[in-house]
Every structure is written in structure tokens, then in C-alpha cells.
Design brief:
This protein is of the alpha/beta class. Helix content is 29%, strand content 23%. The protein contains twelve helices and 20 strands. It starts with 9 loop residues before the first helix and ends in a 25-residue tail after the last helix.
């Protein structure tokens, strides 16, 4: 006896379909596109992953190397920093990156401190004593003598300058507080005011140092030498940038052995990103519910979130809708590397040994460079030098400063903003959706660490704003670009 299957009533079918959940109801994680592979862009990717961002991340780099303004040059088999060079012992993000990536630290050795000379264009207004000896105790005595000579010249103003720097650094350390006590900031102004640093951006460093009781001599000489070395500018820069610059002249400074660019490369490698090398983004448009990024090699990408992690000042990215940011001029620093021997006659001296290892300069338009330092002594007649200047150094001018030039390498950096007061800041959010700008913070101060601090805030801002928004576009809409395994090569 055969049996036929039961016939389900229409009402029963409706009940079954109503109670059965869909096969897939979870939203796609958002796709993030980051423009720039420097420490800012790499840090955004790192902090997104650290804060449980699971969506695809794409990084676009227009050059064939990662690292942005962190780069190296190789001369005579030795590697030297060509861009961002030094880190402060309280740069805690950089410290953590270095430990996490197992990078080797190259510390500032106080026993091998370089001799300093302050050049006014006609002569050295101040020089420390240089005494080469294999005995560490003798080098220590020379260091003490030089400290006394500096103290005799600048007096208690030295301690007042140190105090000014310490107060600023202590305020900056608030950015490392736990999330429970540290909010997410929507603007640079909010971020600076919360830490008590905003007022420093409304006045010049010169004004701040005068109010701090520093002498005219120290401001015009030592403070000016430091700001010209670190930012290529005078004490007329904003107070916060100036304080950060002065902090970069203290002890305990360090760098990554083999190049600071390794921090960016390591963060990118650990962050599970698609890296598009040699691909420049030329337009960003908000279309429907996503950003469409078009590159100069003809590729198109769609992203839920777009982060600009490179200065917009000298880029030709077309935005639709248009964005509005304050006009800003970059300070170009020309880094010139010379292997040879400098000419003592240029400095009014008779012997090469009489020239200090670091020649800093006061603010004088007739001086063609901001500083010159010896990077390595290959022999008594063969050395590698690094020179910073505001304008390109011509061969004729270099031949006046150096009696021998066996190798010359020139690099033009759009290094940092041209600082002034009061500063005006671009927004962190370039629109009301999900277009972000890490480098807005650079008008406060431009360092590797400030880029990382700004990047962490951007990552937290992205996550906090996305948590209450509708599901994102599918990651299938992003076409993976060509990923290079060689993240860096020497310039």
C-alpha cells in the first residue's frame, strides 16, 4: 500500500518561512583605503587592526618604496638617515613599534657627543672643545668642561629652557593615557585643548621663550640653531612646534638601526593589508554609498572609508564633492650628502681639525645652509657629511665649502609645514561621512611620533563613527592591486 507525502497548507508554509532566519544576515566589514605608506598611514592600519577592525585595508603608495619621509641613503657601504632621523625616549608609540617588530635600536652615545660650533656667517660665535681620546674618563672630563662653558655663556636660561620643554612634553604624554580617560577627538583643536597644548600654537616660540625668562643671547643663538636644524626655520615658528624642536636636542635620542622606515614597513607587514606600490591616486569621489578612488595607472577602487595619510599641499588629488582646508605652505628642506673633505678656509680656519663636527647657524639670510654635520670619518681626509639648506646647494657653492667632493647626493623634502602663529588647522574629517586626514595634526608639530599619535586618534574615530552606521559595501568591489614584496630600497 503506497502513501503520498503530506500536503502542507499555505498557512503552514507562511509560518515556516517567517520563522526561518536568512542564510546570511551579517554585514560585510568595511573596506578601508589609506593613501600614503609613511608612519602615519602604516600606523592607521596598525591601530585599526589593534582595535579589532576586520575589514580589508588597502594602502596606496605613489613611490616604489614605503616609509614616506623616512628614508635612507647609502654612501661608502654605510646607511644614513635621509629624512626623519631621531626619536625621543618618550616617543612611546615608536618605542612600542620597535619592540613589537624586534627592530634594533641605535642609541645616542653620550661618550661620543659631537663638538658643536655656532656659525654667524663670518666666524664661530661659540665652539665646544673637541678632544679625541681612547680613554673614556678623558672624554668625560672634556664633556664636563664643555657643559661648564655652555653654562657660563647662557646661564640659568638653560634651565628655564629645559623646564619649558619638560612642561610641554608632560602635557603631550596625556595622549598615552588609557581609553577610559582619553576621548576620541573630532578636531585637532579639541585634541590640543584637551592636553593643554592649544595656546602654544597661537603664539611664536620667541614669545614663549621671552615669557619663560630666557635670555636674548640663548634665543638668538642656541634656540635658533636647534629650530633651524630640526625644522629649517627660525624662532618665529609656533610655540608648540618650537617646543617639540627643542625637545629633539636633548639626551637619550635614538633611531632604528638600518633606517627608521622599517617601522612603517613592519607595521604594514603585520597589518594584513593589500599594498599598492607605484600607484598614485588622482581622484576621490563619493558615489552612492562608497568612495571611488581612481589611480594614475587606470585602476578604480571602491572603499567605505578613505584615509589621506600624506600632505595634501603639493598633491593634485581631485575631490568630488570638493573639500575645504586652510592654505598651507610646506617648508622644503634640501638634504645634501657629501663624501669628501671640507675646506677650513671657508670658515676662516687653518686646519680641518679646527672645524666642529656639527656646525649650526644663526638666522642670517647670507648663510646658505642651516647646518652641516659629520656622519662618519672614514679617514682624516675622507668623511661623509650631511647638510641641510632651504635652497638647493649648487656645485659652485659646495666647492667653496668642501676642498674635496668624491660623491654628492641631493634630496628635496617637502618636509613639514612652514610654521607660524596663530596656526590654522585642517579638519580630521574632510567630509561628514568617512573621509579622514591624518596630516591635519602636522600644523601642531611634525614628527614621526606626532604622526603616530594622530593616526591612533583617526583609527579610533573611524571605529567609533562606523559602529552606529548601516552595513558597508561588499569587499568584492575592491580590486586587489599588485603587491610588492620589496618594501624599501635606498634612495
Amino acid at each position: 500500500m503506497s502513501t503520498s507525502p503530506p500536503i502542507l497548507s499555505p498557512l503552514f508554509l507562511i509560518i515556516i518561512l517567517t520563522l526561518t532566519p536568512p542564510l546570511s544576515s551579517s554585514p560585510q566589514p568595511p573596506t578601508t583605503c589609506i593613501i600614503g605608506s609613511g608612519i602615519g598611514g602604516a600606523s592607521v592600519a596598525h591601530f585599526l587592526r589593534r582595535h579589532s577592525h576586520t575589514g580589508p585595508i588597502h594602502i596606496f603608495e605613489r613611490n616604489d618604496v614605503v616609509g614616506g619621509r623616512m628614508a635612507t641613503v647609502t654612501i661608502a657601504g654605510n646607511t644614513f638617515e635621509a629624512g626623519a632621523s631621531i626619536l625621543h625616549p618618550k616617543n612611546y608609540h615608536a618605542v612600542n613599534f620597535t619592540k613589537m617588530l624586534s627592530l634594533k635600536v641605535k642609541s645616542d652615545d653620550s661618550d661620543e657627543s659631537v663638538s658643536l660650533g655656532i656659525w654667524n656667517g663670518n666666524g664661530f660665535v661659540f665652539k665646544t672643545i673637541e678632544w679625541n681620546s681612547r680613554f673614556s674618563w678623558l672624554r668625560s672630563i672634556v664633556g664636563i668642561v664643555n657643559s661648564v662653558r655652555v653654562l657660563l655663556r647662557y646661564g640659568v636660561s638653560l634651565f628655564k629652557m629645559n623646564r619649558f620643554v619638560e612642561v610641554t612634553v608632560d602635557s603631550f604624554l596625556k595622549y598615552y593615557q588609557p581609553f577610559e580617560s582619553r576621548p576620541v577627538f573630532g578636531t585637532v583643536e579639541e585634541m590640543l585643548k584637551w592636553a593643554g597644548l592649544y595656546n602654544l600654537t597661537t603664539r611664536t616660540l620667541h614669545e614663549e621663550l621671552i615669557d619663560a625668562g630666557l635670555s636674548y643671547l640663548l634665543i638668538q643663538e642656541l634656540a635658533t640653531v636647534i629650530t633651524r636644524i630640526n625644522y629649517g626655520q627660525s624662532v618665529s615658528i609656533s610655540g608648540l612646534a618650537g617646543a617639540v624642536s627643542l625637545a629633539g636636542s636633548g639626551g637619550g635620542l635614538w633611531a632604528v638601526e638600518g633606517g627608521n622606515w622599517q617601522m612603517a614597513a613592519g607595521l604594514i607587514n603585520r597589518s594584513d593589508v593589500a599594498l599598492h606600490m607605484g600607484e598614485e591616486i588622482e581622484s576621490i569621489s563619493y558615489v552612492g554609498s562608497a568612495y571611488e578612488l581612481n589611480s594614475t595607472i587606470g585602476n578604480s577602487y571602491k572603499c567605505d572609508v578613505t584615509v589621506v595619510a600624506t600632505p595634501l599641499d603639493e598633491l593634485n588629488i581631485s575631490f568630488n564633492p570638493k573639500i575645504s582646508i586652510p592654505d598651507r605652505k610646506l617648508q622644503h628642506t634640501h638634504a645634501t650628502f657629501i663624501r669628501g673633505l671640507w675646506n677650513p678656509a671657508y670658515f676662516g680656519l687653518n686646519y680641518v681639525a679646527d672645524i666642529p663636527e656639527l656646525v649650526g647657524t644663526i638666522e642670517n639670510s647670507d648663510i646658505p645652509f642651516t647646518c652641516i654635520s659629520i656622519l662618519k670619518k672614514h679617514s682624516e681626509k675622507d668623511m661623509t657629511y650631511k647638510m641641510f639648506s632651504r635652497q638647493p646647494m649648487t656645485d659652485a657653492l659646495l666647492d667653496q665649502i668642501f676642498s674635496v667632493r668624491n660623491e654628492t647626493i641631493r634630496i628635496d623634502w617637502g618636509a613639514y609645514p612652514h610654521y607660524h602663529s596663530p596656526e590654522k588647522f585642517a579638519p580630521f574629517m574632510l567630509d561628514d561621512i568617512h573621509l579622514y586626514y591624518v596630516n591635519a595634526f602636522e600644523n601642531a608639530a611634525s614628527t614621526m611620533e606626532t604622526s603616530a599619535v594622530a593616526a591612533e586618534n583617526i583609527a579610533r574615530l573611524i571605529i567609533s563613527r562606523a559602529s552606529s552606521e548601516p552595513p558597508s559595501i561588499s569587499s568584492d568591489n575592491v580590486t586587489s592591486g599588485f603587491i610588492r614584496s620589496d618594501l624599501h630600497s635606498d634612495l
